[in-house]
Design brief:
single chain, about 350 residues, alpha/beta, Rossmann fold, Cytochrome-c3 Hydrogenase, Chain A, domain 2, 2 domains, two-stranded antiparallel ribbon, 7 strands, disordered N terminus
Amino acid sequence: MTGVSAVEAGVNGYAGTGDGFEEMHILWISEGMSCDGDTVSVTAASQPAIEDVIGGLVPGLPKVHLYNKVLSPTLGGEEFLAPFRAAASGDLEPFILVIEGSVPNEKINGDGYWTSFGNDPVTGEPMTLDRWLDMLAPRAWAVVAIGTCAAYGGIHAMAGNPTGCMGLADYLGWDFRSAGGLPIVNIPGCPVQPDNFMETLTWVLYHAAGAAPPPPLDDMLRPQWLFGKTVHEGCDRAAYYEQGDFSTDYNSPKCQVKIGCWGPVVNCNVPKRGWMGGVGGCPNVGGICIACTMPGFPDKFMPFMDMPPGAHLSSALIKPYGAFIRRLRGITNITANKEPKWRHDRELLTSGYDPRWRP
């Protein structure tokens, strides 16, 4: 498993301004094991909006041609599949391959198949996702996994599943490099936070234009600047944890660790960024963090509404300290809510004004 440091990302493969592509195709396949929720989520992005990128309204980006079944103006069928077939045969380039949904193991599909995208023009048989990956991924200038399912397998890859589902890096290999020399770019979320995806895609496009270095990724191939901190570090409720003040139901504004929140150990920026236009985000609106951006999701974080194992010890340790600090702060708060005694209208100045420099 290979991560990409910020230093490496700032050096490897950076051609410099003006030495890039003027046009870029984006082939978006959502035929992984998926609900298409990531595509729907991205339609709410505003930093930048996907229509601004496609419409050429973001300065410095290549001209973008997007092929996504939900956002496509075609009637579907072979008209929609045409650019994918062209890319597979080497007749359409450069392109960025975006995969939505987890990758099922077609080696264990019995007499059928798990998921497909179009039919083979020769045999008429369904073309499975892994077949498309084998054809397109090596030719792609960049490969992007949108959502936790594509990044790490997600819900479809949980214990007991019959499909053998996995994330894109599990299928292609964690040391995979695209034709543009980039590792897979994982942008997890269930669904993905819309601006997280569009911001990362925009960075990749600026790199394609020769105007930026590759995006810096962590060991799990996530953008470092988006997933470098925990939910807890950006949460409005974090101060309550420090004071040992925990909620016991979902109607409280206090820390939710005791009712199932995994925020202290989850890499995600949603509490800081919000969901749409800076508004929303799980803990911000009363929801617990169920760790949907993490590689171990969902298995390592269930049952979702139960108190996380580590929370028993951490909350017990913080309780006496928090109670003491909360009491001291309460006393200081009372003092801070009183005006200084020299603010009065009597005939005596009591503010301490003493012009010693005057004779």
